[in-house]
Amino acid sequence: LMAPLLARVTRSGAAAMLVAPPLVPYAPALAAMGVKLDRLLVVQPGAADVLWAIEQAVGSTALALVLGWAPAGPTGALRLRRLALAAANAPSTVTLLVRAWPALYAASPAPLRLAVEPARDADGGEGVALRIVKRRGPPADGVVGAVLDGGVVAD
């Protein structure tokens, strides 16, 4: 799901960073999707340092995109607040934090929270559905978009 965003950012000449991806990114596949590998950094800190590493990356003016995966288990509210403040103070950096499914309804200072879930279209095609869990303004109802069989379908 993030490859088109990574490709757009890196093709523009800006740098992107992946922090603690759960699997080693496969460079040939990313390159085939248009990601400029010379503009992509991958950092694999220890579990205790993941949120700190993301916070430091967000505070850097050298990155246009920071995509991080939070370690499994509870994430401290103070750490999340620090990360949210760093992201708010870096408006030119897109900051995305992927958390485990059990954290979906845990408290978070993030202004936008999304849930990505498996989905099927009427013809049985598989994909993912995007649901807004939290946002500024009134609550959003239902699925707001889906990616099915490689195409984007928006409600």
Shape category? globular
The ordered H/E elements are HEHEHEHEEEEE
Q: What percentage of residues falls in helices of 4 or more residues? A: 10-25%
Low-pLDDT regions = none
The oligomeric state of the chains shown is single chain
Adjacency order of strands in the biggest sheet: 2-1-3-4
Strand-residue proportion: 25-35%
Radius of gyration: 16 Å
Task: Provide a descriptive summary of the structure in words.
The chain is of the alpha/beta class and 155 residues long. Helix content is 24%, strand content 31%. The protein has four helices and eight strands. The protein has helices at residues 3-11, 27-32, 50-59, 77-88; strands at 15-19, 40-43, 63-69, 94-98, 113-120, 126-134, 143-148, 151-154. The strands form two sheets. It has a four-stranded parallel beta sheet, with helices on both faces. α2 links the parallel β1 (15-19) and β2 (40-43). α3 (50-59) runs parallel beside α4 (77-88). The radius of gyration is 16 Å and the shape is globular. The model has no long low-confidence stretch (mean pLDDT 84).
Give the secondary structure arrangement, pairings included.
Blueprint: H1 3-11, E1 15-19, H2 27-32, E2 40-43, H3 50-59, E3 63-69, H4 77-88, E4 94-98, E5 113-120, E6 126-134, E7 143-148, E8 151-154
Parallel strand pairs: 1-2, 1-3, 3-4
Antiparallel strand pairs: 5-6, 6-7, 7-8
Helix pairs in contact: 3-4
